[in-house]
Amino acid sequence: MKVRTIERVRWWTYAGLGLAALISLFPLYWMFVVSTSDTAAARQQPPAVVPGGNFLHLATTVFETVPFLRALLNSLIVAVSIGVGQALLCSLAGFAFAKLRFRGRNTLFLLVVLTMTVPTQLSIIPQYMIISKLSWVDTLQALIVPGLASAFGIFWMRQHLATTISDELLQAARIDGATTWQVFWRIAFPLVRPAAFVLGLLGFVTAWNDFLWPFVVLKSPEMYTAQIAIKALQNNYDVDLGLAMSGSFLATIPMLILFVFVGRRMVAGIMDGAFKG
């Protein structure tokens, strides 16, 4: 009887997970359907659920209307730089807050955490003023530098380092003559590399999908990221849904490829951090 109960629970569990997966994937599928059709098919009732045959034509139009390939490359440069930067810099800051002793440590960490309560929109004006003073308007470094570290990333790595690495291990390394940098790079960072990898992926995805800040700071089509290029496909009076969805689908393909290759490792890194403590 117990075996049958377990089998029944497993069946319903997999059925529920399968249904949830279908519901989650349907918007992506519908985006592809619209990207193969025209605006009329996208607005018909009930919505079209069968792909059309205009995807190649619309995709070609996307590349002819805006420098979309350059926009994808710009997004890749920005996202990779931010992902790597957050993985390293947030790990360094998290290590300092978790394992180093210095005056004002707890106060500084509290201030870092409090910045997460400030809406992103409130920082746009002072951030733009700083970027303008540096003559970085309409450049990729205006997107990269502000995103190299984040309050969430510092909090994430601080908590992970505090629960993963014992003080006795670091003290033993110091007795052997290791400097603070050597302790971090050779002992601490390798042990929390899965968490740093997950943080880097989260930073990559966030930077790839960011729209507001690039829309404010980028001016020329050559500097557009993928999200701004999609916005450029639309005019002020009418929206070609087929063209817009085609650009959105093309911008989503790199994310799908990334998830196929690193999705399992990302989940493993999250679960590894979830069971620490």
Automatic annotation (TrEMBL):
Major localization class: membrane
Record field: transmembrane: 12-32, 71-96, 108-130, 136-156, 241-262
Compartmental location: Cell membrane
CDD domains, alphabetized: TM_PBP2 (cd06261)
Sorted UniProt keywords: Cell membrane, Membrane, Transmembrane, Transmembrane helix, Transport
Membrane topology reported for the UniProt record: Multi-pass membrane protein
A Pfam cross-reference name: BPD_transp_1
SUPFAM superfamilies: MetI-like
Sequence ranges assigned to domain ABC transmembrane type-1 in this UniProt record: 72-262
Entry-linked Gene3D superfamilies: MetI-like (1.10.3720.10)
Family: Belongs to the binding-protein-dependent transport system permease family.
Name of the featured protein: Sugar ABC transporter permease
Originating gene: cebG
